[in-house]
Predict the 3D structure of the following.
Amino acid sequence: MENCLFCRIIQKKIPARLVHEDETVVAFEDINPQAPVHILVIPRKHIATSLEISPEDNPLIGHMVRVAADIARARGIADRGFRLVMNTNPEAGQTVYHIHLHILGGRPMHWPPG
Ligand code: 5GP
Ligand code: ZN
């Protein structure tokens, strides 16, 4: 989508520190990290929120989670623990309307989250 920030990152019209790229997903460092490891995993397909995920996207979403787990292993936070977050709509703090899985780790994570 033309005016979507994350679509523009996928198209490399906006620079990002890429961590992983394949046919269906892209991962990159969050510009405003909230933990020592803070990486976003996004689908190449524009999906605005988790509410728009359809059954045909099941393999894609599964792949996003597996890529996130692989990145957590590669960054050495898998055994310590890490958090995967997908904020949905304003009250949850979603600011970019192209779904993204936050990988957060490298420090203790508190529960409940803020
Ligand atoms: P949300 O608040 O929608 O769950 O998460 C959006 C995330 O995107 C935030 O953590 C924010 O720091 C990150 N972000 C916003 N703009 C950019 C950008 O231009 N580049 C990168 N790498 N991250 C961004
Ligand atoms: Zn998009």
In short: Helices lie at 5-10, 58-74. The chain has two helices and five strands. The chain has a mean pLDDT of 97. The beta strands are 18-21, 25-29, 37-43, 82-85, 101-105.
